[in-house]
Design brief:
This protein has 239 residues and is of the alpha/beta class. 28% of the residues lie in helices and 31% in strands. Strand 2 and strand 3 form a beta hairpin.
């Protein structure tokens, strides 16, 4: 029987879905809530751009309630303030662990651990330092169904939107793109798999481009594409 109450950070994509699956199998942590950051103005999952209605359907099908961190300003100060408020409420329920699906970005792990330390909570990283090729192949083998909903134009073009994550997807990825998109190359929406009671229905909508005000350097073997100018989003409409 699991002995530690926990929250799992849920983006709605493949890494959080796979991470939840592994945590449920291991049964060390009792996942009380899924924690998601939502843009309060647009009612979409931050970074992924997925509609809040689809997020709600995911949680309903999984059977674990959501905790939402609503942000509108887009600043780290606002995010950290809102996150702390939500975490303290969870801590008051006896929850002391927060689970993340991060794999190898040290600066991201340090940031999360430092923020949690301020509220007396502990970060857990079940997928940490695991081989990303092995992870994504196991994800596919376990019959998860996932669609690409966002691409970083420093790595992948608009044409990658709407692709299913399967063996052909992995075969076609350009050299230098992490198979799990751990450097932010792409984001995904997981709509079916062993953690769901039923498939999440959606209809593909329009493709939208959002440019960045500040161009950022990307990582990887892309001598001709060193700058991220913006992101492509695939609007998924709930059925």
């Amino acid at each position: 029987m699991s002995s530690h109450k926990a929250i799992l950070c849920w983006s709605g994509g493949k890494d959080s879905a796979y991470c939840l699956h592994e945590v449920l199998l291991e049964n060390v942590y009792e996942v009380r809530y899924l924690l998601t950051t939502v843009n309060g103005e647009f009612k979409r999952i931050s970074m992924h751009g997925v509609r809040e209605e689809l997020l709600d359907k995911q949680a309903e099908s999984i059977g674990i309630p959501l905790l939402k961190v609503n942000v509108t300003e887009g600043s780290n100060v606002e995010y950290e303030r809102q996150m702390e408020t939500v975490l303290l409420k969870a801590k008051a329920e006896g929850i002391n662990h927060v689970i993340f699906g991060d794999i190898f970005l040290e600066e991201v792990r340090n940031y999360r651990e430092n923020n949690l330390a301020r509220v007396g909570m502990t970060a857990v990283f079940p997928l940490w330092k695991k081989d990303t090729t092995g992870l994504i192949k196991d994800f596919i083998d376990r019959k998860f169904k996932t669609i690409i909903c966002c691409t970083n134009d420093g790595y992948l073009e608009k044409t990658w939107l709407g692709r299913e994550i399967d063996e052909s997807f992995l075969d076609d990825l350009p050299s230098g793109v992490d198979p799990c998109g751990e450097n932010g190359e792409y984001h995904s929406f997981c709509y079916d798999g062993p953690i769901y009671e039923k498939e999440i229905g959606f209809i593909p909508g329009e493709m939208v481009y959002k440019s960045l005000e500040i161009k950022t350097e990307t990582h990887g073997d892309f001598p001709d594409k060193l700058i991220t100018k913006g992101f492509w989003f695939y609007d998924l409409v709930p059925k």
